[in-house]
Amino acid sequence: MSLSTKICSFCNRKIKTATGIMLVKNDGSIIYLCSAKCKKNMFKLKREPRKLKWTNKYVKGGIKLKSR
Ligand SMILES: [Zn+2]
Question: What pTM did the predictor assign?
């Protein structure tokens, strides 16, 4: 079988084999998280990964959000 590299759903970083967290959502889709840190930020803190410098989703200079 091939080794598939998983990408963390929160920080977009590669997850090393045998590490990380796999979660199945209510709709049946599977998400992978590299660490408890990412899990916490995604579900508990509900942070936006594009605003966090340690994620690969971070957008330099900030995100332009549409004003309501
Ligand atoms: Zn992560």
Answer: 0.78
